Amino acid sequence: MTSTPISHDDAADHIGETLAAWSGEWFASGSLKALETTGAPDERGQYRWLVRLAGEEKEFVTLWLTLRQRTVHIETQVMPAPEERVEEVYRFLLAKNAGLHGLHLALGPESAIYLVGRIPAGDFSGDVLDEICGAALQYVEEIFPTAMSMGLGSLYRRRRRSGS
Question: Which helix (H) or strand (E) holds 137?
Fold first, then answer.
């Protein structure tokens, strides 16, 4: 595969600076647990950032942001591949998918379930990050316990929420 150059040279700097400025408020609230970057493009010429959010149903929701040619690709794993009641899990996920905004459910490596999305690199801002991170956190919190109970019920035990 050949390298895919980004649409303009300063896009990675802009995204890094935006993430750094945005992260302060999220760190202060306790919602953001980690923000990391690969710091350099990979073999495909793409930069990547990791955003780890604190969850309740799922301890952490980890988003990978990847700067592609003209877009920032967002992905987070919702759950591993279902092993039980697979058809029911997929039916549940397809029904949920219809109501999602900005992100959608997809099969990823090894048939794991992911939330994915993309935004134009030029539209990347703190407000967009708020929307994407908030949506990812909300969707994973809504989908994870039911999907895990259905698809990996013999292995999954729901976490007790603090204060419950």
Answer: helix 126-151
Which residues make Cβ contacts (< 8 Å) with residue 24, sequence separation at least 6? none
pTM for the structure as a whole: 0.87
Q: Quick one: how far is CA 124 from the chain centroid?
A: 15
Q: How far is CA 116 from CA 75, 78, 119, 143, 145, in A?
A: 4, 10, 11, 14, 19
pLDDT digits (tens, 9 = 90+) for 53-74: 999 999 999 999 999 989 999 9
Q: How far apart are CA 23 and CA 129, in angstroms?
A: 10
Residue tagged 């092993």 (tokens): 83
Query: Token pair of 18, please?
Result: 């935006």
Token pair belonging to 20: 């750094």
Q: What domains are defined for the chain?
A: 11-150 (3.30.1460.10)
pLDDT tens digits, one per residue of 109-127:
899 999 999 999 999 999 9
Query: Structure tokens of 100?
Result: 């999602």
List, in sequence order, every beta strand (DSSP E) within 38-159: 47-54, 60-67, 71-79, 104-107, 113-120
